[in-house]
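Why show two proteins at once? Because comparison is the fastest way to build intuition. When a single record is shown, students tend to memorize it. When two are placed side by side, the eye starts asking what differs. So, the first record is below.
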Amino acid sequence: MSSSQLKPIPILYSFRRCPYAIRTRMTLLYSGVQVEIRDLILRDKPASMLAYSEKGTVPVLVLEDGTVLDESLDIIKWALAKNDPQAWLGAKISLLVTENDHAFKQHLDHYKYADRFPEFPAEEYRTHCEAFLRQLETRLNKSVFLDGAQCTLTDIAIFPFIRQFAFVDKDWFDQTPYPKLQAWLADFLDNEIFVRSMKKYQLWKEGDPITLFPD
């Protein structure tokens, strides 16, 4: 839904399939914080986004006062500070999220884009990823979610990366010895917040009318 907007609202530069952007959009939906969404493709980054953040990565959130947040966890914490009805954030960001965002993400990139890293076959990079999967499976054997009986930011922050990993070779993932992780992933894939977060928008260009998210 597009709309003209008299009162300034935050601007979110996003890329639909990026796991960092996915977890950001899921949190914005959960918290009910509305932004102007500017959907893009990473090979054609708008000059306005690069002016706000030279990193050239998404998501980027520009607040009404011009403050720029260009790390997904910073945007998530900002949104949850406004509204966190089910206490997703808790006391602090889980160390599991830190491992996901660094060691696991590096192995995942090597696995997903193995042709760019020909030093080793994709299967070897996948084996490195499995060390993290085993951690998640162990946790899910003890509780429904990664940090206990309730969904928290730990689940939301990690889910898009497990989704990305699984769909590199879904047939292989579906026969792995991680039944709890498979069920956890399937539940999130069907979750209304995830489904709504993946709505397709027309790619943004300068001069377009405002598109609100959530609409």
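Second record. Ask yourself what differs from the first in the token line.
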Amino acid sequence: MDTWANLEREIQACRACPRLVRWREQVSREKKRAHLGKDYWGLPVPSFGARTAPVLILGLAPGAHGANRTGRPFTGDGAGPFLYGALHRAGWSSAPDSTARDDGLALRGARIANAVRCVPPGNRPSPAECTRCAPFLERELALMGRLRVIVCLGEIAWRAAHRQLVGRLAAQAGPGNSGGIRPPRRARFGHGAEQEIAGIHLIASYHPSQLNTRTGRLDARMFDRVLGRAAQLSRG
């Protein structure tokens, strides 16, 4: 029987993607000028939040000098205040920003994970790297027994979540399904897009990167509406 402790231990020990291992360790050695005196996590980053949450916030990958430094998703970089601020307004986060693993922030009713657990060069994991990391997300979804909604931050997360739920649908059908199940086509990604598969609702959002938030492609009201919709769907 899988456990959260086993999953988190295996995530942190993973070295399956040589390119990502080299990059996360290089970033941790060279550091950013603002963080020269700080220790970097420099390992794959586990998820964070309520284990029995009905809502999973799914991002792309750890930030080079954010989660790769702190060891917590969306912590210590420019996207953090935007995301945790919105979660705080929604009543899911105890504070509007997360700066470190031991800062005392807690999530209620939500959990945060990334589709890829190591920081990739240029924020672009390869398809093979996404595939190798996918079993971690599969196991995480299985452990979240009350999961009803996945909020997908960006298209890579949207694709990863769809792939997981299509796999779940096939598993539910079982090998004796003589007629077969035609897997649902992935809905086109766009902010606010929705799709339901295997009893789980997917909701898409533009990623809260500074590139998107500083240019106005994603603003607080847009993101609050997505979280509001997620809260509505999580209540069934």
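One difference worth noting in the second protein: The two ends are 28 Å apart (CA to CA).
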